[in-house]
């Protein structure tokens, strides 16, 4: 009956029922056990206040041994933390530590609460204590990784997330966390792989779908982001932020009408949401509904005078109304609020262009692209100025026969298949050193058009010394796209690839086994077309063959492939 309470990538464990393995000795103990079970059930139902009351009643039993009392205090601390009573939570955890210093979950939970309060170093010490007491405690590794990430120790965080994944491969939290760490390392395609894995583990995880959409946006895969956000909205139809994010994906996919619908839905759900109003103002400007746009932007600024987006969008509105001087004033306000927002520099470049300040406009638009390389409005504006967006230089030492490697202006490396300009592979770098292509292997038969581009991706420092890293890009030359980017080798460790009819199974060295569908070779069913019946409809409201009801390109590994041993009481106690 032990469960894990998960918020974002932070895992709180409660396990009072796990230590109630011995039969109670008297009526008072029976009451304590019943109250503890009642509290745990209430917590799982989301009735936190009832859970706290029941835990408090259980603690009135004066005959409780220290380990059981500590476990109940731990669980009440979890409940207090969920309710936002952080001081009370810390007090419960402190008392539990005094009673039972060897109880690992209480250090994990106190660390989470300290992390939420901003005491990152103190939280880190608690996670380290939990791991020292229970080296197989997956949740503690996950949470220590979150603390390391906040401290800017990204490489160490990735190591901890990987440990957590090896211990608990069916937990999406660590996969999402590792993906977020990859994003911080400017490795969006590795992040996409992790978020896709998390969705395979839990197809209803809005957090994973939202994270994958953000990574897809980062690399310009707007249609993919729209699809992922649509699935997330199906699970959380009243989530305002999801509608706003999908609206921006529609915006960059050059679909302002769809963007307007999503922004409007967000405003309907929360009429005082400044981001939703500002976004709708931008969409209305794109559709030349200037009066309505100005009203929305004014409302957004009235609600949030620190909305850099609203000022930036109003600057562009004024530019469209041929009032660039007013637009410049708005841009200066936006820059003062948030100089790191790509939309601010895009709006600044648009206004400067209207004022005839061409060089300044180019610099501002390039700044927007440096922050968000897929910012389509900025790249379009540069093209209108006659500027080549993709300035690059060849790196002959990194190339092999049939491929060229270039270093782009934003310091990203890209490989191009000669004679196939649309086949491009972003070469993510891991650790120190530039990438270097090693091998191009093209498949035939059923997998005709599929190729593997293996390359040296840098060198990382580990406790064992310097280790070279190799990645493999799976490329579909027929579709002109990269399907997946896989970690293949680090030091002496190497992934294992097993090819099947249309699929490949990859036992990665990062703790995950992927089954990637490359070609669907199932023969079409020889039946007449008919109107779908209700039983034919997928979860997302359409027939199973509809695009939004298709399975992702990853498949969950079989039970035999996962090779997971039976769970023990220890596994239940520590969330593995």
Structural write-up:
The structure is a single chain. With 576 residues, the protein is an alpha+beta fold. Among the domains are: 1-151, Serine Threonine Protein Phosphatase 5, Tetratricopeptide repeat (Alpha Horseshoe), CATH 1.25.40.10; 392-522, no CATH class. Helices cover 52% and strands 16% of the residues. The chain has 24 helices and 15 strands. The chain has helices at residues 16-19, 27-45, 48-58, 66-82, 86-99, 104-116, 120-133, 138-150, 154-167, 172-184, 188-201, 206-218, 222-235, 240-252, 256-269, 274-286, 290-303, 308-320, 324-337, 342-354, 358-371, 376-384, 559-562, 569-573, and strands at 3-7, 10-14, 392-394, 403-408, 413-417, 420-427, 436-442, 450-462, 465-476, 481-490, 493-494, 496-500, 503-507, 513-517, 554-555. The chain has a 5-stranded antiparallel beta sheet, covered by helices on one side. Strands 3-4-5-6 form a 4-stranded antiparallel beta sheet, with no helix packed on it. α16 runs parallel beside α18. The longest helix is centred in the N-terminal third of the chain and has 19 residues, at 27-45. The radius of gyration is 27 Å and the shape is globular. The two termini are 14 Å apart. The model is unreliable at 1-8, 16-25 and 526-576 (pLDDT under 50).
């Amino acid at each position: 009956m032990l469960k894990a309470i998960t918020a974002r990538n932070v895992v709180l464990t409660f396990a009072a029922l796990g230590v109630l393995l011995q039969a109670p000795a008297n009526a008072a103990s029976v009451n304590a056990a019943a109250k503890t079970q009642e509290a745990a059930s209430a917590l799982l139902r989301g009735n936190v206040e009832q859970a706290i009351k029941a835990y408090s009643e259980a603690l009135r039993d004066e005959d409780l041994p220290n380990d059981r009392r500590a476990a109940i205090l731990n669980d009440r601390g979890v409940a207090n933390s969920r309710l936002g009573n952080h001081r009370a939570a810390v007090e419960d955890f402190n008392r539990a530590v005094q009673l039972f210093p060897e109880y690992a979950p209480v250090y994990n939970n106190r660390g989470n609460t300290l992390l939420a309060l901003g005491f990152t170093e103190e939280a880190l010490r608690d996670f380290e204590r939990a791991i020292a007491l229970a080296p197989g405690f997956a949740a503690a590794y996950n949470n220590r990784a979150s603390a390391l990430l906040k401290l800017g120790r990204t490489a160490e965080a990735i190591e901890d997330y990987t440990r957590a994944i090896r211990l608990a491969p069916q937990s999406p939290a660590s996969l999402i966390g590792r993906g977020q760490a990859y994003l911080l390392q400017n490795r969006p395609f590795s992040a996409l792989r992790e978020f896709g894995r998390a969705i395979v583990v839990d197809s209803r995880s809005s957090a994973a779908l939202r994270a994958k959409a953000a990574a897809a946006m980062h690399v310009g895969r707007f249609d993919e982001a729209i699809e992922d956000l649509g699935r997330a909205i199906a699970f959380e139809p009243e989530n305002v932020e999801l509608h706003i994010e999908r609206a921006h994906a529609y915006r960059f996919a050059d679909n302002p009408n769809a963007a307007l619908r999503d922004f409007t839905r967000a405003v309907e759900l929360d009429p005082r949401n400044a981001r939703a109003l500002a976004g709708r103002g931008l969409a209305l400007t794109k559709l030349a509904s200037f009066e309505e746009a100005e009203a929305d932007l004014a409302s957004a600024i009235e609600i949030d005078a620190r909305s850099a987006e609203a000022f930036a969008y109003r600057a562009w509105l004024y530019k469209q109304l041929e009032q660039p001087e007013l637009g410049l004033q708005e841009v200066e306000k936006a820059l003062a609020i948030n100089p790191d927002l790509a939309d601010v520099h895009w709006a600044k470049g648009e206004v400067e262009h209207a004022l005839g300040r061409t060089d300044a406009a180019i610099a501002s638009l390039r700044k927007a692209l440096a922050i968000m390389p897929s910012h389509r409005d900025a790249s379009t504006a540069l093209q209108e100025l006659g500027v080549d967006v993709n300035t690059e230089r060849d790196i002959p030492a990194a190339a092999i026969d049939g491929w060229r490697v270039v270093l782009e202006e934003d310091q990203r490396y890209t490989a191009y298949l000669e004679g196939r300009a649309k086949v491009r592979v972003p070469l993510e770098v891991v650790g120190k050193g530039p990438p270097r292509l090693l091998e191009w292997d093209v498949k035939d038969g059923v997998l005709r058009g599929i190729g593997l581009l293996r390359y040296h991706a840098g060198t990382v420092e580990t406790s064992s010394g310097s280790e070279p890293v190799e990645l493999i890009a799976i490329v579909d030359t027929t579709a002109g796209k990269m399907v997946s980017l896989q970690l293949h080798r680090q030091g002496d460790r190497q992934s294992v690839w097993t090819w099947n009819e249309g699929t490949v199974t990859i036992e990665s060295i990062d703790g995950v086994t992927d089954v990637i569908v490359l070609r669907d070779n199932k023969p079409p069913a020889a039946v007449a077309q008919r109107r779908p019946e209700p039983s034919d409809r997928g979860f997302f409201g359409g027939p199973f063959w509809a695009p939004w009801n298709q399975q992702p390109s990853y498949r969950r590994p079989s039970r035999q492939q996962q090779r997971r041993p039976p769970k023990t009481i220890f596994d239940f106690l520590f969330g593995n």
